Amino acid sequence: MPQSLLLSCLGLILAPPCILAAQDGAWVSLVLDSSLDGWTRLNGEADFSLEGETITGTTMHGTPNTFLATDRTYGDFSLRMEVWVNSGINSGIQIRSESHPDYMNGRVHGYQVEVDPSARAWSGGIYDEARRGWLYPMILNPACRDAFRVEEWNEYYVEAIGPLLRTWVNDIPCAALYDDMTLDGFIALQVHSVGSPNDAGKIIQWRDIQISEGTIVARPFDDTYVVNLVPNTLSAQEEAQGWTLLFDGETTDGWRGAGRESFPERGWKVENGVLIVEASGGAEAAYGGDIVTEEEYTLFDFSMDFMLSEGANSGIKYFITESYGSDASAIGLEFQLLDDERHLDAARGTAGNRTLGALYDLIPPADGKTVRGPGNWNRARITVSGVHVHEHVMGSRMQQHTFAGSHVTHWLNDRIAVEYERGNQAFDALVARSKYAVWEGFGHWQSGHILLQDHGDEVHFRSIKVRRLDAP
Q1: Which of these, 116, 137, 113, lies nearest to 379 by C-alpha position?
Q2: CATH code 2.60.120.560 region(s) in the chain
Q3: Residue 466 and residue 301 in contact, taking contact as beta carbons nearer than 8 Å
Q4: Which residue, 86, 251, 334, 437, is most buried by CB atoms nearer than 10 A?
């Protein structure tokens, strides 16, 4: 044993045997001397056993989630292991996790890398156990959902460097989370509780569990979407992907009033890292008025956090052409922002097409949307991609028309709320039945500004960012 490693364990005769710390990026096994010394079972009564370097967890009916946790904590690291699990149950790998008597009676809480053999196929996603719930559901990265092989050995790889957590399953990139809530903690293996006696006795296995600390060589950045929970920041991976901040938390640079050359002198303010549209008694655009980005966008990915006040109405509009609108508010496609429980507009329109997340007055959001009520932060995201070539007859000749940005998706709290194709016959039929029927060519613009609406109610915005997308 190298002297530096030996010294880290000296003087621990009366303490539990330690798990050796990796030095300068070397890989060290977390299972030593064919024993589970250095690990402690927490919360439940499910059984863990060891054979060679393979740990087996066995489900038990009538006991809560059970965790086998390392006795020491880890901050920045790379972690790799292989996982095997019976179908029909769920498991996970805790990282940077904690257990304190004053938090839910010692309940294990923190980041969990999902092991999910179900048809949902969210293996590799990141769940915040006993705290905030899903932080990175695999609907954000469909390419990873085929990576996990049911009832076969699967290789998991996790990188934790500062606030950036990244996961891979069988070398397929899965999750990328940027979050600074917990920057160190223990690693734990989960045996999930089971609701039926028929699921007792099923097994989860982990083998070749190794960790690297010290000088960590990060894997190259890729195009995996980053869920960033640190306000008004960009992670290094987002910067590499081409994201830019549209709000730096301090100024209104990059924005101006709709139809104006400068930013409104009243009605909007920046306070404690938040851009706020102030209340004006519910009169649309009567105080500060709408604001738009100085730049225009065609194919793009736009994201922001918003917090509604009670009864608030607002919106994110896109493909805004300011000469095409009204004195009250610019006309454009709109991601509706609304307190559905308290604002009358939720009951207007058709089938909920004026509720939170809707393509306003055109398409209602999907059932089961996740909403955090007034006073809580939510995330809105709009992706515009795709180029379609439409053919039509003009006179005696067939003409072709290229339509950029045909595929649009509204995301609400990292779930798809609305997905549609614009510029085709089905879209035009929706427009013909809406309030926009009077606007010729509505929704066919090829580029435009992004707009934040002043509808007379107080709404907070932060973490506003965008990246331009390449044409396919």
Answers
A1: 137
A2: 3-227, 242-468
A3: yes
A4: 334
C-beta separation of 35 from 61 below 8 A: no
CATH 3.40.1190.20 fits 242-468, yes or no: no
Q: How does pLDDT run across 51-93, given as a tens digit for each residue?
A: 998 999 999 999 999 999 999 999 999 999 999 999 999 999 9
The CATH code of domain 3-227 reads: 2.60.120.560
> Which residue, among 207, 216, 206, has the nearest Cα to 165 in the 3D structure?
216
Q: What's the chain's length in residues?
A: 472
pLDDT at 20 over 50: no
Three state DSSP letters for 3-25: HHHHHCCCCCCCCCCCCCCCCCC
Hey, is 140 helix, strand or coil?
A: helix
| HSE, side-chain direction, 13 A CA sphere, residue 213 | 13
Q: Is 427 helix (H, G, I), strand (E, B) or coil?
A: helix
Residue 459's nearest CA partner among 345, 327, 334, 288 is: 288
pLDDT tens per residue, range 331-342 = 899 999 999 999
Asked whether the predicted pLDDT for residue 392 surpasses 80, the reply is no
CA distances to 22, 30, 103, 155, 313 from 210, rounded to whole Å, are 9, 6, 29, 12, 51
Identity of residue 266 = R
